[in-house]
Amino acid sequence: MSTLPPVTRSRLEMQGFVGLDDRTLAELAPWLRFTPAVCTALVGLGTFTPWPWLLWALVPIAALGAIFPVHPFDLIYNRGVRRWTGTRPLPPNGPPRRFACGVAAVWLAGTALAFSAGYEVTGFLLGGVLTVVGLLVSTNDFCIPSLVYGALFGRPRAGGAKRA
């Protein structure tokens, strides 16, 4: 596939993947879902089991994704999975996706805290909503935290400029 539907390009650019040509973005588009899909699966598992220890373990992983341009699960893809897929490495995450990781880290901590304190209904609600938000980005590239980032700070554009 060498072209990308405009809605997919728009959603990936909303996440900060700007300045990539159509061919590169079309090749990487399905694999840009890898990290959100792994995170979502683990959040869902931690929520619906419920295993607060797993949610607590995900907090620093999400925080690292917020701090650095390469998420720890992107490293797993770049160092291993892509050898089987035959694709190029994932590009660095821009500010919107990193913002989303920061939101996830805080949300995970709240969810884990709710379960740890015995507030299971609150834990299930928080974790369930986070799982749904993760499913959106994992299945159709629509990232609500990146949308919020764009509303607050402007949408990213190639060359670092932002558009409101």
What does this structure look like?
The protein is mainly α and 164 residues long. The protein contains eight helices and two strands. The chain has one domain (6-163). The chain has a two-stranded antiparallel ribbon with strand order 1-2.
Structure described in brief:
With 164 residues, the chain is an all-alpha fold. The chain has helices at 6-14, 22-28, 34-48, 52-67, 72-85, 95-116, 120-140, 144-153, and strands spanning 155-156, 162-163.
Describe the SSE topology.
Layout: H1 6-14, H2 22-28, H3 34-48, H4 52-67, H5 72-85, H6 95-116, H7 120-140, H8 144-153, E1 155-156, E2 162-163
Mean pLDDT: 94
Number of strands: 2
Indicate the percent of residues in helices: 55-70%
Low-confidence stretches: none
Alpha plus pi helix count: 8
Domain unit count = 1
**N- to C-terminal separation?**
31 Å
Give the biggest beta sheet: 2 strands, antiparallel
Structural class: mainly alpha
Query: Approximately how much beta-strand content do the residues carry?
Result: under 5%
Which descriptor suits the 3D outline? globular
Q: Give the radius of gyration.
A: 16 Å
Which series of helices and strands comes N to C?
HHHHHHHHEE
**Strand arrangement, largest sheet?**
1-2
Please give a handful of descriptors for the protein shown.
70% helix, 164 residues, two-stranded antiparallel sheet, single chain, mainly alpha, 2% strand
